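Researcher: I'm comparing several assemblies side by side, and this is the next one on my list. It has 227 residues spread over two chains. Same procedure as the others: predict the full complex and return the structure.
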Amino acid sequence: GESVGLHLPTLSVQEGDNSIINCAYSNSASDYFIWYKQESGKGPQFIIDIRSNMDKRQGQRVTVLLNKTVKHLSLQIAATQPGDSAVYFCAENISGANSKLTFGKGITLSVRP
Amino acid sequence: GAGVSQTPSNKVTEKGKYVELRCDPISGHTALYWYRQSLGQGPEFLIYFQGTGAADDSGLPNDRFFAVRPEGSVSTLKIQRTERGDSAVYLCASSFRLAADTQYFGPGTRLTVL
């Protein structure tokens, strides 16, 4: 079936290092992708999004890369901080069609001091 | 400004009981979504409202689940004859207008069915 998935369940990084979180998607019709951060006991928090007409989009300390050829999405976090520790989800959507976001299972980012 | 709010934050009920979960979207957002999140999983879509009408309810698991949004703002998710398998965090999100606009999530309601 079609799904959004993440390659690794956990990622441990040293504070100050850069983090890269990867995501594979299988629905070639998806044209809108979002990264969410979820801290324990809270709802998902929007980080950054990208539409399929772009390959790269930058925010504050975060960059999302989209490779439509291999259906791959990544989130790069520069100078990772303890406050970045959370579960990260990628999600996909088909704009103009049904509205639901399809989420992957999530990856836990743990920042070592 | 105020984000999406959900009440209650926690709900414990007994098997077979009826529960209502409430969502207050961001002011001015016309689209409202309900998702369900089980432990260790990503959120799963339940239903989507555009204004007062349910535009897509394909994610509702069965007819025990129902949601309304009578005035196009606050929404209530209703679960009848709750089962232990309904235990999860129920998340509400809203977006300004279209489905592809950014969805902003509330803190969720943790439902526990004993």
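Model: For your comparison table: Chain B has a mean pLDDT of 93.
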